[in-house]
Amino acid sequence: MDKRLKSILKRVQRPARYVGGEINCPPINTEVRVRFCLCYPDLYEVGMKSASLKILYHLINDRKGYNCERCFAPYTDMEQELKNAEMQLFSLESRTPLAGFNVLAFCFEDQLCYVNFLSMLKLAGLPLASKLRGEDMPLVYGFGSCMANVEPLAEFLDFAIIGDIELVTTKVIDTIMKSRLSKLSKAETLKELSKVEGVYIPSFVKVEFKKDKLSKLEGKLVKRQIVRDLDRTYFPTKLLVPNESTGEDEAFVEMARGCGRGCRFCQMGYFDRPVRERRVQNLVSQATSQIISSGSGGLKIDSPEPSDYKNLDSLIKFIDPMCGERNSKFILTNNRNHALQGHIVNMRRPHTVELSLEAGSQKLRDVINKQVSYDDIYSIFKASFKKGVTNVRLSFMIGLPSETAVDLMAICELAMTCKELYKKYRQTTRPLSIVITTNTFIPMPFTPLQWCGYIGQKEAKKRQDFLQSAFDKLGIKYYHDDPQLSEAKAILARGDRRLCRMLALAMDKGVRYLGGEGINTDEYDLAMYALGIDKDWYTGKKGVKDLLAWDLIDSLVGKEYLAREYAKSQKGETTLDCSHGCSGCELSKMGVCQYGGH
Amino acid sequence: MVVIKYKKKDEGIFFSHLNVIRISGIDVVDGPHARKKKMLFSGPTSVGVESEAEYVLLTTDLEEHEVENAIENNLPKWIELVYVKEVDKDINLLCDCAEYKVEFDDYKSCKGRIREFFSRDKIEIDANVHGVKQKLDVKDRVYHVKLGDEGFSIVVGIGNNSGHVVELVKSLLVYIKSRSEFEIKKTRQFLRRDGKWVDLDASLTMRP
Ligand code: SF4
Fold it and tell me: Does B97-198 match B2-92 at the fold level?
């Protein structure tokens, strides 16, 4: 190891973040024609949890002639050390400076990490604006859930991938390889890439603004790409074992993609449709090879909602003894409504019941189409307490459309009822611990509530204070998100390319979001003020007929369908879960949905 | 019950002992529910320090070779398994002190000042004790110093009686006015038995 780097690593926190060489790291051949670096704009231990990153890393490395390395955002101490030593940000595997790669692929799963992405480019010595990056500099592209709206990063990204990465990535890397072999320029390569389905090229999009409004958006409509059959899609046989604990270090298999519950605030529920499941047999064989290759004591079975998996009983029947034989335990992720299904146990915390109720009152639960009734909730509590549960964690959203003080009070009332039920059904003398968490509602692109407004940080703070004083009186622990960060996220989620300048300025002023910690976040407000950006316009309510920054992306679900759902939400009407009846989104016409009509 | 001895070198020096345990799966050789509670570490070395003598005592029903098989393929390339040894259950693995080798560029020209540093009545260092920064006199925790040709070796207390070797060396460099980068390597651990210092490796073969 380079002496300078060694000396830096001795001074920073958690140096194992920056050394690579994990178990199951494939051999790296730096002599290939196209060198990829997969970048995650957050800390190592956050990025190593990302399912997209896990899959894509091995997918590229398993292809002959390609090579893929990784780079994560450095923590502020490492960033400062690199600047002091005038060293460029480097990949973990071969410690090549990022500027030495042909392609940098950034995974965006949180809008607050956009500033980290810019700081990584800067630390790599690369110009932020794509048009300033020369022929000898890497192509920079984005993928991940945030790419539902590419526009806030339009000036920085050469292109973005929309939809399931496995499908588009293989076509993208082959196109780049061909372009390099034919010695095409960057502009010519982008032209070739524009022919690949699912590739969005911001520089090919014409945008105009009149007053504050987006008035013109011209370019090719990019269809979200979906893997139809998960069983026939690439999934790695070995995964890296992280050097620093991610808190989720188990082996990992993906049980299903997409969720059909139709919660109207949830982007995954619409932008990841339809529900696709892997077969039990396939999951068991993938799980076996993952456990053997990682030596892990646990297996994480990932899914948006495990209890929706059709063959859950039979999966558990096979997985449980297989894990038992190998001294492993299995964990079903996002297992927050587990008590709805008697057989699913939260393996991480067996004495805890976690429910994402999102709204305290039935009225608001109907608005957001969260189909859980008071009876459901109370029976979950009763059943859990009878099983010996002593910890209850409930999460809600505040700032939902049409929310009033009565809806906030309903959250407190639910907590009180929970306490009363515990007194009645408790199995132990231990006191009940209730933890309430709230997040502020952020209208997300491609959801039925995408036209709604965000309440603003001042109002969010007011509602949080209201709940805080109520819970203090009740002796209940209460946590909430940072209103400043939720506002920044709300602006970025539905933002347009005018925000690029704001992001660059905020990054320069030291704004970062690393490992869930916001750093210098006051500077967001100052940057917007300095650039004359009207944040109320970004956070405000939109008209159904307004042009939206993501209108050149076709989510396959259909804008009319979303508008219908929006109208229903305003009337407090609910829509059935896809597994109980198709409500006729556009996917129903494509024959790709297991539930939907053709 | 077994003792696992391993070495940390090159990039391995940046792995904490807990990371080594997690990655290697030492904590789950007996099954996932045996996590952590059945393990004991003897003076784990600080992150950033090379070590030839890291020890973990693991309570398990497995045989030596079974533990060895379970973990040896899961070690990062910079962590080397030295041995897995079956031991009596009342073994004392809590060492009192450890030997370190210290090297830095201008060592040869500073030998006199180094001697002077260690022969003072007080050896003050800036230490972080349970998250609190404080000045600490570690004179009575430095048991032995031997100046060699390329560097010096030092025996200092570990565990509750820690001589905070990294901070000690930093303090030494300030004293001798050296701006060199230093390398520290832990070479052995000792425990006190019948009034004598016994190398932990040797003690593992003795009856208590
Ligand atoms: S086609 Fe029907 S069942 Fe399928 S995702 Fe759309 S609404 Fe749900």
Answer: yes
In chain B, domain spans: 2-92, 97-198
Q: Which residues line ligand 1 (CB under 6 A)?
A: A 260, 273-274, 578, 582-585, 587-588, 593, 595-596
The answer to whether A538 and A491 are in contact (CB under 8 A) is yes
| Half-sphere exposure (Cβ direction) of A551: Cα atoms closer than 13 Å | 16
How far is CA A82 from each of CA A77, A298, B149, rounded to the nearest angstrom?
A: 9, 36, 34
Hunting for tokens 């049409």 — which residue is that?
A: A402
Q: What is the pLDDT of residues A185-232, one digit of tens each?
A: 999 999 999 999 999 999 999 999 998 789 999 999 999 999 989 998
**Peptide bond preceding B44 in cis form (omega within 30 of 0):** no
User: pLDDT digits over A506-557, tens only?
Assistant: 999 999 999 999 999 999 999 999 999 999 999 999 999 999 999 999 999 9
Q: For residue A174, what are the CA distances in angstroms to A37, A65, A143, A168, A376?
A: 16, 10, 17, 10, 51
pLDDT tens for A376-408 read 889 888 888 888 888 888 999 999 999 999 999
* Helix runs in A477-558, H state only: 483-493, 499-508, 522-530, 535-539
What distance in angstroms lies between residue A595's CA and the mean position of ligand 1's atoms? 6
Q: Which residues pair with B79 in a beta bridge?
A: B8
Tell me the pLDDT tens digit for each residue of A222-279. Answer: 999 999 899 988 888 888 889 988 887 777 888 889 988 999 999 999 999 999 999 9
Which residues of B have a CB under 8 Å from any CB of A?
10-11, 14-16, 18-19, 22-25, 27-33, 35, 47-48, 70-71, 73-78, 181
Taking CB atoms and an 8 Å limit, are A245 and B18 in contact across chains? yes
Gap between the Cα atoms of B54 and B50, Å rounded: 10
At B113, which helix (H) or strand (E)?
A: helix B111-118
Task: Identify the architecture of domain B97-198 in CATH.
Answer: 2-Layer Sandwich (3.30)
Instruction: Supply the pTM of this predicted model.
Output: 0.91
Per CATH, domain B2-92 is 3.30.70.580: yes
Q: Which of A228, A560, A583, A589 to mutate to test the pocket of ligand 1 (most atoms within 8 A of CB)?
A: A583
Q: Could you tell me if A450 and A495 are in contact, meaning their C-beta atoms sit under 8 angstroms apart?
A: no
Residues facing residue A254 across a β-bridge? A302
Closest C-alpha to ligand 1, atom 4: A596
pLDDT band for position A345 (50/70/90)? very low
